[in-house]
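Lecture notes, part 5. Sequence design as translation. It can be helpful to think of inverse folding as translation between two languages: the language of shapes and the language of residues. The source text, in structure tokens, appears below.
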């Protein structure tokens, strides 16, 4: 197994800590996390040091990769402190919307930048990251980013940076839609009079089991759906409601469009 590169993680919040958990499972060589929050201090452990500020990074630490995982709104304040690593490290920005051009401007120096969009299943190495490498990224740096991002799940590369906006809407935010579906299934169970514990158990295990079946099966999602849908049966009735033109197809189209637009708004 290839070792993971030494890295500096800027922002150990929900996504940063999820990636770190995935890297830990894989076997991390050396990481420094910069994050001022008390919660992030708990991320310290074998091979992982947490500091509150960039000024506390030990002199001489030369990360191979700098992962920018602060909120897009914190970027202007946070990024300039890391310009000094631009000579040696590849920068991997996971900030929603922020373009390579914006990250370069905020760093204040030319840098090798990969713009990537992971998702929180990275914590259990079941994530998907879609990434774009800017021109300044060398093949060695791209391979290094591929190793790091691929250590938390699947990785795909795109040649067109603009695709990262719909990617952010679909796979970046996607786990939230699946968790909402779980919540709605549970609520529907309660509405039908099921005991709360049973409604919760059914909703969770239905989503977990369906995902596992999708992962294990050679069939695609549509075939697996058809296998549940007996002609003239109960599921057919439910799907007629959900698949009506003004129901899920419209909602998903509009939701993904809204999130894609928000990603574009966050670009600068
Ligand atoms: N959550 C997700 O599912 C995904 C998020 N992303 C992207 O990841 C990035 C982080 O999102 P998320 O983890 O959800 O957000 P969080 O708010 O959970 O994490 C950001 C962390 O950065 C810390 N922070 C704030 N300022 C600084 C600073 N100057 N230096 C270092 N750390 C700082 C915050 O501390 P404090 O709370 O004290 O401000 C917080 O712990 C965003 O850009 C987002 O677009 C990408 C893919 C998926
Ligand atoms: O909601 C957000 O802006 C981030 C990006 C994708 C998931 N979370």
């Amino acid at each position: 197994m290839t070792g993971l590169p030494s890295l500096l993680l800027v922002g150990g919040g929900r996504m940063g800590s999820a990636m770190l958990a995935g890297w830990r499972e894989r076997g991390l060589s050396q990481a420094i996390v910069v994050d001022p929050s008390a919660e992030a201090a708990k991320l310290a452990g074998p091979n992982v040091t947490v500091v509150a500020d960039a000024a506390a990074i030990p002199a001489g630490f030369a990360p191979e990769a700098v992962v920018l995982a602060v909120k897009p709104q914190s970027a202007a304040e946070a990024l300039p402190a890391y310009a000094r690593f631009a000579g040696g490290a590849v920068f991997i920005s996971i900030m929603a919307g922020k373009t390579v051009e914006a990250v370069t401007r905020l760093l204040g120096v030319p840098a090798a930048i990969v713009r990537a969009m992971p998702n929180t299943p990275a914590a259990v190495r079941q994530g998907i990251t879609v990434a774009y490498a800017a021109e300044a990224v060398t093949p060695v740096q791209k391979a290094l980013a591929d190793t790091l991002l691929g250590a938390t799940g699947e990785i795909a590369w795109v040649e067109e940076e603009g695709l990262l906006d719909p990617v952010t809407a679909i796979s970046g935010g996607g786990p939230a839609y699946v968790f909402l579906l779980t919540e709605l299934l549970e609520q529907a169970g309660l509405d039908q009079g099921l005991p709360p514990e049973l409604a919760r158990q059914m909703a969770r295990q239905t989503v977990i089991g369906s995902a596992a079946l999708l992962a294990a099966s050679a069939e695609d999602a549509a075939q697996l759906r058809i296998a549940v849908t007996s002609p003239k049966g109960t599921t057919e009735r439910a799907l007629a409601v959900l698949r009506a033109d003004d129901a899920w197809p419209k909602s998903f189209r509009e939701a993904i469009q809204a999130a894609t637009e928000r990603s574009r708004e966050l670009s600068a």
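The translated text above is only one of many valid answers, since several sequences can fold into similar shapes. Residues 10-16, 34-37, 40, 69-72, 74, 77-78, 94-96, 117-120, 172 surround NDP (ligand 1) (CB under 6 Å).
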